[in-house]
């Protein structure tokens, strides 16, 4: 009997302590993003900070666009920094690297670097707008050198999402006079995010042999303020641990550098997958606008009851 109890105790210890959680950091682009739709800016910030605190997420990173640092936008970003969240560089005016000159892009990066330097939680991570890292060899390599010269690291994502498209669906429905059931909206949003997370984690396990420390692409907008708590709850229920972005960017894949020129970048896991000849699944179904539109119409606007 004693041997049986000891075996059961060892098994319980192993299950609790030795099986690692899957880990993911929350990263929010475009802050302080334009407000004035369903929520105003101060309400968005208050709801978002409250939800993060309530769900014990102590640090996320806001990749910030410095042209919005005035008035309410400046106060909003300051509130995020004062709460201990990281502020990082997302350029001054969110240019598309595929359509502007290298000189214009560097200037936008440097202008944001100067503007964001006063934030106490500013960290030298840079996220390329649209995840586009250069559509020519010169653009790609020169910008990599510029980042290194300024002491920056690439704020890559491992989980790409189209949450911005879901936000547009939500705001457009409100403007059109639809009464959007927020419970249905939350279920739809969380499901689409989890589909992307699980698809990219499965791809990572396929190409890396394990689940890495993930970085989730989100945007600072109304649906994140409304539903981030529900997303965190869903992640934890699925065995995910929310970690600091600083921890996530200490991952072994942080040093990976693609030799390809990728005008359209699926994210770090997709980059690695391409080096192994994988070309399918780099943009999962939940990143397809037609699928999101169909699901939004079916599950949010046309649902007949909260259970649908």
Short description:
It is built from eleven helices and seven strands.
Explain what the structure shows.
By secondary structure, the protein is an alpha/beta fold. It has one domain (21-301): Alpha-Beta Barrel (TIM Barrel). The chain is built from 11 helices and 7 strands. The protein has helices spanning 2-18, 41-54, 71-82, 102-116, 137-149, 163-175, 182-208, 222-237, 245-248, 268-275, 289-301, and strands at residues 22-31, 61-64, 86-89, 122-126, 153-154, 214-219, 240-242. Strands 1, 2, 3, 4, 5, 6 and 7 form a 7-stranded parallel sheet that branches. α2 runs parallel beside α8 (222-237), α6 crosses α11 (289-301) and α7 crosses α8 (222-237). The protein is globular, with a radius of gyration of 20 Å. 38% of the residues are buried. This is Polysaccharide deacetylase. Residues 1-18 form the signal peptide. One of its GO terms (cellular component) is membrane. Residues 22-243 form the NodB homology domain.
């Amino acid at each position: 009997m004693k041997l049986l109890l000891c075996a059961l105790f060892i098994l319980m210890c192993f299950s609790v302590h030795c099986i690692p959680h899957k880990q993911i950091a929350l990263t929010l682009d475009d802050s302080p993003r334009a407000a004035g739709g369903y929520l105003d800016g101060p309400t968005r910030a208050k709801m978002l900070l409250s939800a993060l605190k309530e769900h014990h997420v102590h640090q996320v990173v806001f990749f910030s666009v410095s042209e919005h640092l005035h008035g309410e936008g400046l106060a909003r970003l300051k509130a995020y920094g004062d709460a201990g969240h990281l502020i990082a560089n997302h350029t001054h005016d969110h240019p598309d690297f595929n359509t502007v000159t290298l000189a214009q892009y560097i200037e936008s990066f440097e202008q944001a670097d100067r503007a964001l330097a006063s934030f106490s939680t500013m960290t030298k991570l840079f996220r390329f707008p649209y995840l586009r890292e250069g559509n020519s060899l010169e653009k790609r390599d020169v910008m990599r050198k510029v980042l290194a010269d300024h002491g920056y690291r690439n704020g890559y994502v491992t989980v790409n999402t189209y949450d911005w498209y879901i936000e547009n669906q939500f705001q457009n429905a409100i403007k059109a006079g639809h009464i959007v059931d927020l419970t249905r909206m939350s279920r739809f949003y969380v499901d689409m995010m989890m589909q992307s997370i699980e698809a990219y984690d499965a791809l990572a396990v396929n190409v890396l042999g394990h689940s890495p420390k993930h970085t989730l692409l989100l945007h600072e907008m109304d649906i994140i303020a409304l539903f981030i708590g529900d997303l965190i709850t869903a992640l934890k229920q699925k065995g995910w641990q929310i970690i600091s972005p600083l921890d996530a960017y200490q991952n072994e894949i942080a040093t990976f550098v693609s030799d390809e020129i990728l005008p359209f970048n699926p994210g770090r896991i997709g980059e690695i997958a391409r080096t192994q000849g994988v070309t399918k699944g780099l943009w999962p179904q939940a990143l397809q606008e037609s699928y999101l539109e169909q699901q939004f119409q079916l599950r949010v606007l046309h649902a007949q009851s909260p259970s649908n």
